[in-house]
Amino acid sequence: MTARVGVVTFPGSLDDKDAVRAVSLAGAEPVALWHADADLKGVDAVVLPGGFSYGDYLRCGAIARFAPLMSELVPAARSGALPVLGICNGFQILCESHLLPGALTRNSSLRFVNRDQVLRMENTRTAWTADYAEGQEILVVLKSGEGSYVADEQTLDQLESEGRVIARYVGGNPNGSRRDIAGITNEHGNVVGLMPHPEHAVEALTGPSTEGLGFFTSILSHLSAGAPAPA
Asked: Can you tell me the distance from the alpha carbon of 119 to that of 20, in angstroms, rounded to the nearest whole number?
């Protein structure tokens, strides 16, 4: 049976269609999910896409965490049962929802950054990174104004000691993220937040590479294995 991966659209989402295409190219069935619904439609996994949910009012992702759909998504993800990938604004929403620790703040340059970005994959044991090799470098797209990942030293040390940093920036830190962190996972390995955009690197015609597709094929490998992601 084909895996069904939901892609949530919030007011202000602008990368939801790209995420839908990436899911389809990976071989899954994309399912459109609307922020105001309280039903996940029985999907096997969820992508929270990039954009400016609710206009980024208050803080990026601060209002989206209260969307009706999140009332079902958050407990399912927290239990480890539902794989969730948050990209850019989706990462911000995951932090605001306390599914991931820390926060995303203004880039250290105080400028919007838009560039092709090399990442080094650090944790390939999650539901969303299993198709990569540890230490593999991939080229994807980075485009954000509030992409600097911050957390207190105790939290950062815990992420490091538990192997929960899934990717780091290579070739210079583009936004001031602590310890060059580009993405992290929760303790179950089912929730992943990533600031760069793998969905913009899935086709040679339109992206800098096709190396972002691994995030979307990884979830299919995880679901077909039928086992929870290791912590």
From this structure: 22
The whole domain housing 214 covers 4-225
| CATH value at residue 47 | 3.40.50.880
3-state secondary structure of 200: helix
Please check the confidence at residue 227 and state whether its pLDDT lies above 60. no
The token pair at 108 is 């250290």
Token pair for residue 162? 């538990």
199: annotated active-site residue? yes
Known catalytic residue: 160? no
Does the structure show a pLDDT above 90 at 229?
A: no
Residue 154 lies in a domain: yes
* 197 counts as catalytic: yes
* Assigned domain for 190 exists: yes
pLDDT at 230: 45
Single-letter code of the amino acid located at 214: G
Specify the DSSP class assigned to residue 230. Answer: P
State the chain's mean pLDDT as an integer.
Answer: 96
Supply the pTM of this predicted model. 0.96
Answer yes or no: is 146 within a domain.
yes
CA 96, CA 100: separation in Å to the nearest integer?
8
User: In this prediction, what percent of the chain has a pLDDT beyond 90?
Assistant: 95
Name the catalytic one among 60, 96, 146, 197: 197
Options 88, 188, 200, 222, the catalytic residue: 88
What domain count does the chain have?
1
